[in-house]
Design goal:
four-stranded antiparallel β-sheet; alpha/beta; four-stranded mixed β-sheet; about 25% helix; about 25% strand; single chain
């Protein structure tokens, strides 16, 4: 999971904080610390519902040379069951301090982005604690899509890595011959 400050959108974690007493310097400082602590203590894992978006393959899968992993959200013991859809807006979220639990505030803050990013059709997992989770192949991963430009050695490695997992489907991402889109074809 990534820390908020390491993400590529400079507006990540930006929110309007309604101060309890904006004229009191101690309140301003307390709110500054609160805002900083919420951002510093939170991590996100970003996913997309769109496995064939040309730009996502270019930006996040090494120019179509990588892979796309499909996760299940059905296992209630998995972190993937906590996934939430991103909201896209032209305004930053407004947060009233002490309004709710920090985890609820984190959802309000980190599930909102500018509409410029809406093409990503993003979903997120938000954590205020551990920023590392190792997916369980047997229950978390349901499919792997191999990129259009993946090297032969990397393609063979992915297929070999998954050969023992009957429940994991393997797909190949291919350029459409008739339109500007990517087709996802089942290969195993």
């Amino acid at each position: 999971m990534s820390k908020i400050k390491s993400l590529n959108d400079p507006f990540e974690g930006i929110f309007e904080l309604i101060l309890e007493d904006p004229n009191n310097p101690m309140t301003r400082y307390a709110n500054y610390v609160y805002q900083r602590d919420v951002i510093d203590s939170s991590s996100v894992y970003s996913l997309s519902e769109d496995n064939s978006n040309i730009l996502l393959w270019a930006h996040y899968a090494d120019n179509h040379k990588g892979i796309c992993i499909e996760f299940s959200t059905m296992n209630l013991n998995s972190i993937f069951s906590t996934i939430k859809r991103m909201n896209y807006s032209s305004t930053v979220p407004v947060i009233h301090r002490n309004q709710r639990a920090v985890s609820e505030l984190a959802n309000d803050i980190f599930l909102n982005k500018t509409i410029d990013w809406s093409y990503e059709k993003e979903w997120r997992i938000i954590s205020s604690g551990n920023s590392y989770y190792k997916p369980i192949i047997e229950s978390d991963i349901t499919g792997v899509i191999i990129g259009e430009r993946i090297s032969q050695i990397d393609r063979e490695w992915v297929i070999d890595w998954l050969k023992g997992y009957k429940n994991v489907k393997i797909y190949q991402c291919r350029m459409s011959k008739s339109s500007y889109k990517m087709d996802i074809e089942l290969i195993k």
